[in-house]
Amino acid sequence: MKNKPLSDFRINTENNTVHITREFAANVEFVWNAWTKPMFLDQWWAPKPYRTETRSMDFKEGGMWLYAMISPENETHWSKAEYKSIEPTRQISWLDAFCDENGNENPEMPHSLWTINFIENNGITSVNINIRHDRTADLEMLIQMGFKEGINMAFENLDKLLLKL
């Protein structure tokens, strides 16, 4: 079965959320590893032509993933994910924020709470993502920055990576 494109992308400005559903032609263990191990995240998280480079990852509740998205001209954009809850192969929740190379949050940029659920059915894993923002302005800024296009490109990268695993 071929991977499906971004199958659902909904924006709700009443509650400042984005909901994304995407299916991958791989079992949940492979998809989970792709979302939780830096050696895999660095291969797919950034939309091309950017690349991702993990500075540190402490994948546990209360831990943090600190990473940079790096342009072809070596312009670096830092972000972090602070893990709030983890249920292996089922669910991850993190606070997402733009930051500096030391993880200090940039208060002028949007931040959000991501909740990602993984459900496998006959070797196809559905990833359901709910992203909640505090303010509508933050949600709108993220969309204007090209989030929808960027996440779709990243998922295409993940499709290619999963074919190799």
What does this structure look like?
By secondary structure, the chain is an alpha+beta fold. The chain has four helices and eight strands, in the order ββααββββββαα. An eight-stranded antiparallel sheet has the order 1-2-8-7-6-5-4-3. α1 crosses α2 (38-44). The radius of gyration is 15 Å and the shape is globular. It starts with 7 loop residues before the first strand and ends with a helix. The mean pLDDT is 94.
Helical content (DSSP H or I, runs of 4+) = 25-40%
Name the overall outline.
globular
Q: Please summarize the sheet with the most strands.
A: 8 strands, antiparallel
Q: How would you classify the helix and strand content by structural class?
A: alpha+beta
The fraction of residues assigned to DSSP E strands is: 35-45%
Written as H for each helix and E for each strand, in order along the chain, the element string is EEHHEEEEEEHH
- Determine the N-to-C terminus distance: 16 Å
Topology readout:
Layout: E1 8-12, E2 17-24, H1 28-36, H2 38-44, E3 51-57, E4 64-70, E5 76-87, E6 91-99, E7 111-121, E8 124-133, H3 136-144, H4 147-164
